[in-house]
């Protein structure tokens, strides 16, 4: 049993800080200091709160999928404030023309690459909340990601908001919280509750328990070795064995997308296909995280005919459209929130790109969403070299509505010391 030491590739990101970031580097110390068991390509982070088999947990519950747009996406390109004249003055080369926008209202419109999601918008299942963000500007990728995912400013506790949400649920098993991606525990899921991370559903296996193990000797031998052990890693190994057993319904679920869904061949498309399979397997997972990287567009953010933004938004839209098509009626209990660590500056730079900023846009889709409209309070833009989109809605207020209305959880327990404002998106 081992953890793959390969760092996460930063893709085409050009920011020095973002390009040098490795989630292995971020989390290595935490992993080495906790009860962690690795098996196949998956990792279980155990905790005293682990209560056994997921089989005892009721299926069919609500699910929250949190999609992190890593690298700080440009919300001004995703949801364009076409009625604000400063937007066009500050971005003479990369601004999106108003007549090209989708779902345009008096102030905003969607980038045309969102077209695959237009049916969800029209059906009221997709909404956008603009001018969201942290309580104060933070333009460091590393520290902003940590702050967004801890969601408890000023606290020194190593604990993510999704782990705190899991702590408010009656059951406690390691498949309630799942990260699909690089096999490492994201900050949002770190904490007292047991969680599981995986590259894909096929990785949730016990190494050696394959076609050559015809009589099931490998699981028996591991159980015999660790079953009564008091060694520090024993709890992790026992939990891992239980997770492999509890994951059986997902392994039995077809790998083929349902309802005619066709996912992009991108990393995000593959990851969301895995997420759908986990949800359709109905193993009691309540929160699932997934990432989309390469949003750090200092250079070549581009226009409607070329550049990174067009491709990133197109991949995001096509992947999400396929995901909800794949889920079918199961999607009636799945809410997805997409957010980024911070936004970009108002003014374009000399390289057809934008630099680190402050306020941004959040997307909310699926069950319970009052969609087909834009939310948030807009402050007119200013065209100076360091001007930002000003934050008028703390991002936790959006998340708090999901926590309260989809899970019936205490927002005070999930976001300590924070009093959420009413957004109305759910």
CATH architecture: 3-Layer(aba) Sandwich
| Number of distinct helices | 14
- Termini distance? 43 Å
Approximate helicity band: 25-40%
CATH class: Alpha Beta
CATH fold title: Alkaline Phosphatase, subunit A
- Radius of gyration over all CA atoms, rounded: 21 Å
Uncertain segments of ≥5 residues (pLDDT<50)?
Answer: 1-13, 22-35
Order of helices and strands: HHEEEHEHEHEHHEEHHHHEHEEEEHH
Alpha-beta content class: alpha/beta
Q: Quick one: how many beta strands?
A: 13
Number of domains: 1
The coarse silhouette is globular
Residues in β-strands, percent? 5-15%
The main sheet comes to: 11 strands, mixed
**What is the average per-residue confidence, as pLDDT, rounded to a whole number?**
87
Protein name: DUF1501 domain-containing protein
Pfam family, one: DUF1501
Organism: Nocardioides imazamoxiresistens
InterPro entries: DUF1501 (IPR010869), TAT_signal (IPR006311)
Brief summary:
This protein is of the alpha/beta class and 426 residues long. The chain contains 14 helices and 13 strands.
Which helices and strands occur, and which strands form pairs?
Blueprint: H1 16-20, H2 23-32, E1 36-39, E2 42-45, E3 63-69, H3 75-78, E4 79-80, H4 85-90, E5 109-110, H5 118-122, E6 126-133, H6 141-150, H7 161-166, E7 177-180, E8 195-198, H8 217-226, H9 234-246, H10 248-251, H11 267-281, E9 287-292, H12 308-327, E10 334-339, E11 360-366, E12 374-375, E13 393-394, H13 395-407, H14 411-414
Parallel strand pairs: 3-9, 3-10, 6-12, 6-13, 7-8, 7-9
Antiparallel strand pairs: 1-2, 2-8, 4-5, 6-11, 10-11
């Amino acid at each position: 049993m081992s953890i793959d030491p390969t760092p996460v590739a930063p893709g085409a990101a050009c920011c020095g800080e973002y390009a040098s970031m490795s989630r292995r580097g971020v989390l290595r110390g935490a992993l080495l200091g906790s009860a962690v068991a690795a098996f196949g390509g998956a990792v279980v982070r155990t905790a005293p709160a682990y209560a056994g088999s997921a089989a005892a947990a009721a299926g069919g519950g609500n699910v929250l999928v949190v999609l992190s747009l890593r690298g700080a996406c440009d919300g001004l390109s995703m949801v364009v404030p076409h009625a604000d004249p400063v937007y066009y003055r500050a971005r003479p080369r990369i601004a999106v023309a108003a007549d090209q926008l989708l779902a345009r209202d008096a102030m905003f419109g969607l980038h045309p690459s969102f077209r695959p999601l237009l049916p969800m918008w029209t059906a009221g299942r997709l909404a956008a909340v603009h001018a969201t963000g942290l309580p104060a500007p933070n333009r460091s990728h590393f520290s902003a990601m940590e702050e967004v995912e801890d969601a408890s400013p000023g606290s020194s506790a190593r604990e993510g908001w999704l782990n705190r949400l899991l702590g408010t649920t009656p059951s406690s098993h390691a498949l309630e919280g799942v990260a699909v991606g690089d096999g490492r525990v994201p900050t949002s899921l770190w904490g007292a509750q047991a969680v599981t991370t995986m590259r894909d559903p096929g990785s949730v296996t016990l190494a050696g328990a394959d076609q050559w193990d015809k009589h099931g000797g490998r699981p028996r031998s591991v159980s015999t070795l660790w079953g009564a052990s008091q060694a520090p890693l024993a709890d992790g190994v026992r939990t891992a064995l239980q997770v492999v057993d509890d994951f059986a319904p997902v392994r039995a679920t077809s790998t083929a997308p349902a309802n005619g869904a066709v996912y992009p061949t991108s990393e995000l498309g593959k990851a969301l296909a895995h997420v759908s399979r986990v949800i359709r397997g109905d193993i009691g997972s309540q929160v699932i995280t997934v990432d989309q990287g390469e949003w750090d567009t200092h250079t070549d953010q581009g226009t409607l005919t070329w550049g990174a933004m067009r491709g990133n938004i197109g991949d995001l839209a096509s992947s999400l459209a396929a995901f909800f098509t794949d889920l079918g009626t199961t999607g009636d209990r799945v809410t997805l929130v997409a957010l980024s660590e911070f936004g970009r500056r108002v003014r374009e730079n000399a390289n057809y790109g934008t630099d680190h900023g402050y306020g941004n846009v959040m997307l909310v889709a699926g069950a319970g969403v009052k969609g087909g409209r834009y939310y948030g309070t807009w402050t007119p833009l200013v065209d100076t070299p360091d001007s930002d989109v000003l934050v008028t809605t703390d991002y936790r207020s959006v998340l708090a509505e999901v926590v309260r209305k989809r899970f019936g959880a205490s927002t005070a327990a999930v976001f300590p010391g924070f009093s959420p404002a009413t957004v109305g998106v759910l």
